[in-house]
Every structure is written in structure tokens, then in C-alpha cells.
Design a protein that fits this description.
Length: about 150
Amino acid sequence: MYGKIPDAELRRFYSLWRDMTVIYEEWSKAHGIGGSAVLVLHSLYYDRDGCTQRMICDRWLFPKQTVNTILKDFERRGLIEFSHLKSDRRNKLIHLTPEGEALAAAIIPELLELELHVMERMGAAGRAGLIDGMARFAAYFREGLPEKR
């Protein structure tokens, strides 16, 4: 116990965090794609001008190898294509192919629709509580991080 907070509350938080991860993974698998792959597809779907592997890694906090493996699979399946950046020939810009666009258009809007439906069911107070609580948790946690050297 820390102060007046029972350890059970923190364990419940961990359990719910894990449950959310499992639920997203199950949803993704039901749609024929892994949980990490659906997030990469999400980035490519919304960044229509293309994005780099580094941008995807930074957005989702994925290791470079994870994103690289997903991108190689997408390339093998004809879902993406690469082009060199004019400003930096070492980095490649990734775009969805028409096949990739079709897959993303069949999956990503459906996920968004489900998320919006869930948020609607929570009601305004529930949404505000969830978002405010998560924002405060992140801010307070950030305050407790050691200073960067």
C-alpha cells in the first residue's frame, strides 16, 4: 500500500491495461491481421503522403525490428511500396498500394467505428473521466521519471 491507495487498485489498473491490449489483438486477429500490424496499417492509412519506418516506430513505440518484419510482410503481399526521400536517400517513404488501400479501407474505418461506438456507450461523463484520468496518470508518472542526462 502506498499512502491510502491499496495495491489492489494498481493491480486492477494493470489487469485492465492488459485486457485492452488483448481485446485489440483479438479484434485484429479476427480481421486477419496482427495487433501490431493493424497499428502499422493505421499509420499508413492516415498518413496518405507516406511515412517512414522511423515515424511508425516513434508513433507506436515499436522496436525497429517489429516494424521492419511487418513491412516486409506487407511488401511481400503487395500492400506497400517504397520510394526514396528526396531530402534523405537513406530513408524510404512507405505508401499503400491499391491493394493495401483496399485492405486498410476494409479494416481501419471499422475499428474506428467500434471505438466511437464504445465511447458513445460510455456517455459524456464516462469519456471525460477516462480521458482526464489517463491524462493525469501520464502527467504524474512523467513527473516521477528520473531526469534525462
